[in-house]
Amino acid sequence: MSKTVNKSSNKPNIPAALMFVFRLVKKEKPMLYLWYFLQLISEIGTTVLPIILPKYIFEFLIAITQGTSYEEVKYKLVGTVGLLIGFTLLGNCIVKVTTAIRTTTNEWFNRYLEQTVAERAMNMDFEHTESPDALDQLNKAKDGIAWYSGGVEGILSNFYKVVLNFCVLICGSALVIRECPWLMVIQAAGLLTSAFFNVRINRAEIKSFKDASVFNRRFSYFFYQVSNFNYGKDIRLYNSADMFSERGKKENGKLLNVWKKQAFCTMRNFFGINFCNTFRDSASYLYLGVLAISKRITVGDFTMYCAASSAFYWAVYRILEGVQEVVKRSNYIAEYFAFMQYPSVMPKGTESVAGQEHTIEFRDVSFKYPRSEKYVLRHVNLTIKPGEHLSIVGLNGAGKTTFIKLLCRLYDVSEGEILLDGKNIKSYSDGEYRKIFSPVFQDFQLFAFTLKENVALANVSGEEEVSVNQALELSGVYNDVVKLERGIDTIIYKSFDENGTELSGGQKQKVAISRALYKDAPVVILDEPTAALDPVAEYEIYRKFNELVGGKTAIYISHRLSSCKFCDRIAVFAEDGIKEYGTHDELVMKSNGIYAEMFAAQAQYYV
Ligand code: ADP
Predict the structure, then answer these.
(1) For residue range 265-310, what is the model confidence (pLDDT) as tens digits?
(2) Residues 6+ apart with CB under 8 A from 66
(3) Which of 402, 441, 578, 594 for a ligand 1 pocket mutation test, highest count of atoms within 8 Å of Cβ?
(4) How far does residue 398's CA lie from ligand 1's centre (Å)?
(5) CB of residue 376 inside a 6 A radius of ligand 1
(6) pTM for the full model?
(7) Which H or E element spans position 592?
């Protein structure tokens, strides 16, 4: 497995991010566009009318003070004031309503995107679940969706900001350009210099996000994972709380340094922005003052141009800010894309698996784990016939579990091939291929669902419930389950339900075994899931299991050799491959044989 993951490019693709957001909204919540349109009309009105109308109000009032009768301008004056107040009131109410709708819709989109990340995490190549690079990318995607990018709303609202301010800019420019064109030059110069400082602030923020992601993940591990009660016993009994706290503090320190650097950079650049703004305002007032004193504009014009120049400035400022925000947030959303498109290293086949009887063949298989140079298995050759019961034994680290992982295609072989019914397993579709296995691993997981859901790993009703009960009975845990107040409807663990149950190690293993029995697949695998059972219980499980499995193919890994006696063949793993292979009677008779030695060492327990 010398292939390395060719990570997809994280280069922000802004058009792609925008198109993704637009399409998603169109598909899932198209009404959002209508709300945005309503808000646009309202905000253009509430921004532009207060620039234009005060000029007329001002001029009517000056006319009255200069001798025009009030009656003459009464209706115009009251109408203009009414229009200004009325539109401002109505516009602001509409904006409040649309903002509330947008916020709620964004929450929906956040959950939707998180769900897609979770689904991708469940579907990606298994080997990625152990890759630090993929785990970092997962973290960046999670943070990038809602937290840093602001999700769909973060991108859409900034795009909207650009559109709105572009409309305001056109109105502001139309007012200013004829009478006082230099005003635009002054505003533009001020803007360009502020933009320079803003770009630096944004770059620092993006860099901090990338730097912080690694420390964040480690920090979360120390403080959140270890507060998981499952770690409680080891932490207390090995007095390791201080060690965890120290590690956490160290990572936290690194994280703080990242944010400190960013805060100082932001502060320095804000000073620059402040200086530019003061200079720009002074120059504008000076220019308009000179025009008014030289009577080239009226006092009413003076107020309108002051307001228009300020609107012009803020419109361009917000356009630049909006564009920068869209770019920045697209960067964060790009992390989501990178995770969603995280390249697969395992070729995907399409063929389906036919029938219930299967021949499995390992043909000259060698394997080393990704990012490792050491071969765990070398030149393994083995055929498992339909219905054969194979026992795999060997010392710790001999590669037994790795053999199973290769068989289940959690990893692809580095050399050689694995064949199912004569075809390379890579040619089968993953879903189809995995259907034929009912495995129980050493590190099986039970979830905070009901017992029956843990067995079926699906919603259960009617007939299926009967099969769940049967599976629980066969694994020997049914009598314990019926004693629980809610029987198979009892939730495991107390994470979500205080009436949930905590099962013993042995009971958990039996539930996991029930899961395999329930699936009823043609190839059954037990990878030492019985370590928490005493030898007698384990012997019972294997004996029963062997009966239950009947004509199915079965592969057992166990340290306790008594369970091998039931099997047709035994493969003894040592160092980096199969060193002995045969029936129990053949291997036990072999002088200086590994199996014979192990069996003799354990035999005393069974005599
Ligand atoms: P067994 O099941 O016989 O105890 P395993 O198949 O679990 O042995 O492990 C075989 C070897 O592969 C060991 O040296 C182990 O450290 C190594 N190994 C197991 N899993 C991984 C992994 N995910 N990445 C790298 N090395 C691994």
Answers:
(1) 999 999 999 988 888 889 999 999 999 899 888 888 988 998 888 8
(2) none
(3) 402
(4) 8
(5) yes
(6) 0.71
(7) none
